[in-house]
């Protein structure tokens, strides 16, 4: 059973199509594994009725027996982050007031997964308001790291990453604004993609009933999986905007760009914005860089140059404004937003930007978007000069469960809670370029760590092919001992 749930999605699809394994066998194995281990991990927060799931699995097997056309994900059990609408399942968006809301429709990307034959078995836990790098809320509780349950899962797609690493799901749909896919992937030794902004549809994501779609910039849905081949498989479905045409998305698909295995011009940075990085993590990072250098590529220590604080503030203003669209019109709401973030995360600049966004005028919102465009040009120019840019994902591996906002000690130096993580994830998300995380190994304490690989907008296929090539320099996904 354990062998089934820890197989890659591509392997499971192959075995289903070759009739080596039935869909019912696979789905039963996943459900039994969830029943046994989810009470400890607390990754799956809402599971469909078991009888209904098994009946759907039997129907998938019948489709194969009858020779019907089947989709790319036929029979794969998949979980979805609790910020996407899934008909019949709770969809809270991490909001306590929505914790019992049951969706009456599917998000666009969920529709695509279902049409490709995936069996959606449940939802995965997220952070309060989907804002944190640990997945904890008072109604579902905290999600634990499968490599050490005393440590965090990451967030806000923490339940998503743990579901993959723990063998609860073959593929997972998460989302990223400030590292919400990348940090959990890094903490749990799996792969995660933040695609080019506006590549994947946000319809039905962070959607509030009877209210307009709020967050349209920066927040980006993205897949999580055990390896890059699985990310490619899922993106063939999620990113097929020629088959699933929507007026707000370019009619492109994942095959828009590709890499021809030529020598690469690579930039890399041991840190971002001068943030301290754990010495042992940095040693693993540099060992990986040496292997890439020996693979006949040109490497340079370089990074995009910009005003981090200005970018951080403007990014927060846009997010604050777009969250505020669906907030009640209360006179002290901006002050509450500032106090909430300032007190919880101890980050004045982030709190200031989010609060300013709540009361931003139309013209100042437009100015913030103008700045975002200008900022994106900096990354575009940099990632035109270099094929990819390789960086750490944050300052360290998954940390012990703690209150948000509590500072860390990295290499015996005190570093702020958000500084240690946001420096690598906020402004890198602001430009909208694609970023993939792959695991590169484990520290001596047994905790996995990964790297971020960045590339130019709309080169998602090329980026994934390069990442898949780089996997040979790593040990890849290593299943935890549950």
Provide structural commentary.
The chain has 482 residues and is α+β, with helices and mostly antiparallel strands. The protein is built from 15 helices and 17 strands.
Write out key terms for the chains shown.
482 residues; alpha+beta; 11-stranded mixed β-sheet; two-stranded antiparallel ribbon; 15 helices; 16% strand
By helix and strand content, what is the structural category? alpha+beta
Give the helix tally.
15
Binned, the helix content reads 25-40%
Strand count: 17
- Strand order in the largest sheet: 1-3-2-8-10-9-16-17-13-11-12
Content of β-strand: 15-25%
Cα-atom Rg, whole angstroms?
21 Å
Low-confidence stretches: none
Ends apart, CA distance between termini: 13 Å
- Structural shape: globular
Give average pLDDT, whole number. 96
Largest sheet: 11 strands, mixed
What order do the helices and strands come in, and which of them pair?
Blueprint: H1 2-5, H2 9-17, H3 23-41, E1 44-47, H4 50-65, E2 77-81, H5 108-115, E3 119-124, E4 136-137, E5 141-142, E6 144-145, E7 148-152, H6 158-165, E8 171-176, H7 182-188, E9 191-194, E10 220-225, H8 228-238, E11 265-268, H9 279-293, E12 298-301, H10 308-324, H11 333-345, H12 348-358, H13 362-385, E13 388-392, E14 408-410, E15 413-415, H14 419-430, E16 435-442, E17 448-454, H15 460-470
